[in-house]
Amino acid sequence: MSETPAQPAGQNPDVGWALDDLNQRAKALKRRRDYYEGRHVSVIPPGKTLSPLLQELLEDLVDNLCDDVVDEPVARLSITNWTDPSMADTADLPDDDTEDTPGTPPAPEQVNRGELAQDLWDTNRGQTRANATHRDGWRSGDAWNIVERAKDGTVRWFPQRPECMAARYQEDNPDTLDVVAKVWKSGRAYRMNLYYGPDSAGGGRLERWASAGSSHDGGAPQAKAFVQMTSTTDDGTRDWPRIPVFHFPADEVGGYGRSVLTDVIPLQDLLNKSVADLVVAMEDVALPQRFGTGIQTSYEPDGTETPLRRRARSAADMLTTASKDAAFGQFPGADMSQFLSVQTAWRLEIARKGYLPAYSVAGPTGSSSTPASGLSMLVQEGRLLKRCKNAQEDWGWVWTEQMAYMLTLSGTPTVPADLDLEWAPIATRDETALWELLTLKSGLGVPKRQVLMEGGYDQDQVDDWLDAEATAPGGRLGFPGTGIGGVASITMPGVSGGVAVPADALLPPQPVGAQAPAA
Question: Residue 432 in contact with residue 373, Cβ under 8 Å?
């Protein structure tokens, strides 16, 4: 598509707004990316005279937890399937065996938008690109996707670097984008796209701008250096129902989000400082330091003092001296465990502010030879699970909007209500912990049917089990747990490796008054 300069940037103040917005956020966005990728501020103790080897080591030595704070929730946000809720309403209806009336045209086949959305998702490597989108959202506070039609007519979408994107929402409708800007470097010059929605002044359109060069430091020049580009095949007007840019802010609606690294980065610097202190202490006082006092040096025949040797040729030389007042000894090596305790404390504080389970970041002094129980792991993951569930609700709606737009662009008019997306479980799948939790729920009065459904059994299995229980003496259904009656291990559908259930639940129904055989 050929483009030519058309007019100076003075006619559109949004060019200046976009550059100012990006410049204000550029430093913070770069810092978050640097810390995520392990490029941290040097924390070498000031005033220390270090060997060149140790100096080089400390400049590159970081104990990076910023990537864990970002990657842990990203790994738990996985979209597994797209469905059409309208198709579920007709899935259980009986087949129509009646014969068609002669001359009656067949009913049009209902479009399954869920299958179409799943095809688009797979074609665009959905989960791989979704991981990049979620990673940007957690790390930078904002993630961006742009949907476009390729030259061959296929609809595709790509994640965008947060450092290149700026957005402004409508004042009277803060959920709707008013204008979105994308700024990027192309060769030595800069390009800018301004996306306007159908409610914007002038209607939906795409404006393309370019600069003749860059600033003296290689950055984007001022707004007056940009000129609008016109295409010989496209006037820039669009009939799109909305701006084809989809914004994923973290913990926010109608504005820029908040990075999960905001509170973590200062703690990360303190953790790196404690690691540097440990290395310096290892160099200075980790090993025992020998000393000698009261030693008098000898003199040469010409009266000059014989210097002491820094290294003795043998142990006998070190322990032999003519001075009667000489004393030898050594200072004990420093206790390095104190440094490890400090590091563990900072790691746990990072876990608290970064919503990580404590068991995933505990250092050497925070670990235990006894692994944490499954229920303990679920409890420690509680805050992270709630955070991920909130993200599923907030970002799930944006994903649904994006897929509905892509289907509409593909020729199948779709609104977000026409689609449902399914997420993979976000909790660590620990079967022992799951059944411990279900035992607690059962004790609190949660219906048995609900407990079994949460345990992984389908509806038919639950119905069969509850029907069998109704005919059993006492109508008792046992749940796995610790210290709750006798237990045995059996293999049950939906739970790998077997599950513990009360032993009497395994026995066949016994006549009233009969003695149950030994388990």
Answer: yes
